[in-house]
Design a protein that fits this description.
The complex is a heterodimer of chains A (112) and B (112).
Chain A (H helix, E strand, L loop, with lengths): L3 E4 L2 E4 L5 E7 L5 E8 L3 E8 L6 E2 L6 E5 L5 E5 L8 E8 L7 E2 L3 E5 L1
Parallel strand pairs in A: 2-11
Antiparallel strand pairs in A: 1-3, 3-8, 4-5, 4-9, 5-6, 7-8, 9-10, 9-11
Chain B lengths: L3 E2 L4 E5 L4 E7 L4 E9 L5 E8 L4 E4 L2 E6 L4 E6 L8 E9 L5 E3 L3 E6 L1
Parallel strand pairs in B: 2-11
Antiparallel strand pairs in B: 1-3, 3-8, 4-5, 4-9, 6-7, 7-8, 9-10, 9-11
Classes of the chains: A mainly beta (112), B mainly beta (112).
């Protein structure tokens, strides 16, 4: 089992460009999450999907959109990247909400 | 609004020492609490999950305790080893929100 995989591992964007971060899990989990991690701020929830077909806003959703493509895949889209979105992005999944979360290796995003 | 604090931010100990990491939270109406480990440049790995009805959980040399009334959790690491060097984060799920709030972590260095 690969667990939770994320692509790309690293990306550099110019302000205003768009991109999609991909996440997939092979554990048949129902719930999936997108977090960002910034120095001194801890991890903050951007969006989550409690189950296939549903998505909800987290703590810092502005500037992002998500798609739960199927049970395995949960993507995060930046429509018009801003320097404030420079961060490390983590995808996670759990069998159900509020259960043990399994994290991917992260995507490092730099917006110039 | 739930806030999670971890003090100290960094800790260095000699190999073999028993140590305690602290996590405090402001809203005692929690559903569960998780402790994670994060190695530099990597994702998070779940170590222990404590349900709100539990007082402690153990896994190998790790023991996590929970005192909801005082808003505190501790992670006890017995006989520390250099391989335990990492950042340890706690995350709290508040009843009714189904979201985890993370602390900023304690960076642990175990010296050989």
């Amino acid at each position: 089992n690969a667990g939770v995989t994320q692509t790309p591992k690293f990306q550099v964007l110019k302000t205003g460009q768009s991109m999609t971060l991909q996440c997939a899990q092979d554990m048949n989990h129902n719930s999936m999450y997108w977090y960002r991690q910034d120095p001194g701020m801890g991890l903050r929830l951007i969006y989550y999907s409690a189950s296939e077909g549903t998505t909800d806003k987290g703590e810092v959703p502005n500037g992002y959109n998500v798609s739960r493509l199927n049970k395995r895949e949960f993507s995060l889209r930046l429509e018009s990247a801003a320097p404030s979105q420079t961060s490390v992005y983590f995808c996670a999944s759990s069998e159900h909400q509020q259960e043990t979360q399994y994290f991917g290796p992260g995507t490092r995003l730099l917006v110039l | 609004k739930q806030e999670v604090t971890q003090i100290p931010a960094a800790l260095s100990v000699p190999e073999g020492e028993n140590l305690v990491l602290n996590c405090s939270f402001t809203d005692s109406a929690i559903y569960n609490l998780q402790w994670f480990r994060q190695d530099p440049g990597k994702g998070l790995t779940s170590l222990l999950l404590i349900q709100s009805s539990q007082r402690e959980q153990t896994s190998g040399r790790l023991n996590a305790s929970l005192d909801k009334s005082s808003g505190r959790s501790t992670l006890y690491i017995a006989a520390s080893q250099p391989g335990d060097s990492a950042t340890y984060l706690c995350a709290v799920s508040t009843s009714g929100t189904y979201k985890y709030i993370f602390g900023t972590g304690t960076r642990l260095k175990v010296l050989a």
